[in-house]
Every structure is written in C-alpha cells, then in structure tokens.
C-alpha cells in the first residue's frame, strides 16, 4: 500500500476517534469515594477493604490505534517486498551487460603497425608531425593482423605501405591477405635494397577490388634471417 494512502487512512481513523478518544474511558475507571458509617465511640476504626481495580473495557480508541498500527506494518512490509522484487535473488551473482564489440579500423586512413595483433618490437622516433611509432626489426616470418578492417561499400583498388629498409642488400616482400595467414592474397609489397632513402611509401595495385569488412593479415618474406624492415603503416586507396 502506498505511504500516502496509509497516512490518509490513519488520519480518517483518528478523526473518527474524536478530539479526546480516551476521556470517556478514563472516567469509567476513576474510583468512587468510599462511604462508611462512623464506628461507635471508643472502638478502633476498621479499614475498608480495597476495591479491586476496574478493568478497562475494549475501547474505540484501542481499535483505532490497533488499526493504524496494522496499516503501518502492512505498508512497511509491502514496500520491503516491492523493493526486493526488482533486485536479484539472494545468493545470485550480479549479471553484467554484454561488452560492446571493438570499433572497426578504417583501412582508407591508416592501419598503424603498432596497433596490430602480433606487433612486437614497437619503436618510436621524432618525426615531422611529432613522435612516430612503428614496428621495428621485422624479419622473415614476422606477421601482423588487423582483425576488423571495414571497407564498407567503398571499393579499394590499391594499397601502400610506409616502410624503412634496414640493409643495402635486402630482398623480400610483404604479402597482404584477407581472412588470416592462409586467406586470399590481394597484394604483394616489394622490399628492395636500401638506396639512400629513409622512410618511403611503396604503392601497389590490388589483385581485385575489395569491399566489406575483413581481417587484414600481413606476412614478411625475406631471403635472409636478419631484420629487413621497419613498418609504420599500410593504407588502402579507392
């Protein structure tokens, strides 16, 4: 029962009881003065036996107060049960919401090598636009994975890689596949011997146009076991 309704009912019951609900009943139990004949002269005065206390009858005020108490207890119990109804059962573990999926990468901006899965050996150095982070010392067999590259409805026809060749006699390639290490091969970025350049962007055409969301996997192949390149990013183009 709502608290407001309890208050209203208690108010009605109190109004029915009147301004002085106990006045009549207090008069009912007031003792009447005892009267007795005076004893003859010279005889000791005998004390009259005490009259038993009158019992208080069940009164309207008692009924009113009892009803008010019952209403208050009922409202408190109902509120407690209502509060428990919306909570978990005793001993139950709290439930957690399903975590939101990771945001997809935009392959038309840049897939940063240091953000990829398997990107060990992250390095940094000052650049023209601030600190440049990259995956350094990539050798034959090194791989990187971007699990959620979303091309949407746009069509990619080309990809480029910003890399730095580490040796003057390096020969190799970066294979780009969709879906994982054994997925569809869509591009091969050549790694050629160092010719006095530092960082450079190497563009190649895709084997076929690419749309939709894919896992983009990069694998390095080289003809030597020593590290052959540092990789900053790869970017797809329309």
UniProtKB/TrEMBL annotation:
InterPro entries: CBM6, Cellulose-bd_IV, Galactose-bd-like_sf. Residues 32-54 have a biased composition (Low complexity). One of its GO terms (molecular function) is carbohydrate binding. The chain crosses the membrane at residues 62-83. Keywords: Membrane, Signal, Transmembrane, Transmembrane helix. Residues 109-237 form the CBM6 domain. Residues 31-54 are annotated as: Disordered. This is CBM6 domain-containing protein. It comes from Saccharopolyspora hordei.
């Amino acid at each position: 029962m709502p608290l407001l309704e309890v208050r209203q009912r208690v108010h009605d019951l109190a109004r029915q009881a009147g301004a002085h609900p106990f006045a009549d009943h207090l008069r009912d139990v007031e003792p009447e003065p005892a009267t007795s004949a005076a004893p003859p002269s010279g005889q000791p005065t005998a004390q009259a036996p005490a009259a038993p206390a009158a019992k208080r009858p069940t009164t309207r005020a008692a009924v009113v107060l009892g009803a008010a108490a019952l209403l208050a207890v009922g409202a408190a119990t109902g509120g407690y049960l209502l509060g428990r109804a919306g909570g978990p059962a005793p001993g139950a573990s709290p439930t957690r919401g399903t975590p939101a999926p990771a945001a997809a990468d935009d392959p038309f901006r840049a897939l940063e090598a240091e953000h990829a899965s398997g990107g060990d050996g992250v390095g940094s150095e000052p650049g023209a636009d601030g600190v440049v982070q990259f995956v350094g010392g990539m050798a034959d067999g090194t791989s990187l994975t971007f699990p959620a590259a979303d091309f949407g409805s746009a069509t990619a026809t080309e990809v480029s890689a910003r890399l730095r060749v580490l040796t003057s006699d390096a020969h190799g390639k970066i294979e780009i596949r969709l879906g994982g290490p054994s997925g569809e091969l869509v591009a091969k970025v050549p790694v050629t011997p160092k010719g006095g350049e530092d960082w450079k962007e190497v563009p190649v055409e895709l084997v076929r146009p690419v749309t939709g969301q894919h896992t983009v996997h990069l694998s390095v192949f080289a003809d030597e076991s020593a590290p052959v390149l540092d990789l900053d990013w790869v970017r797809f183009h329309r």
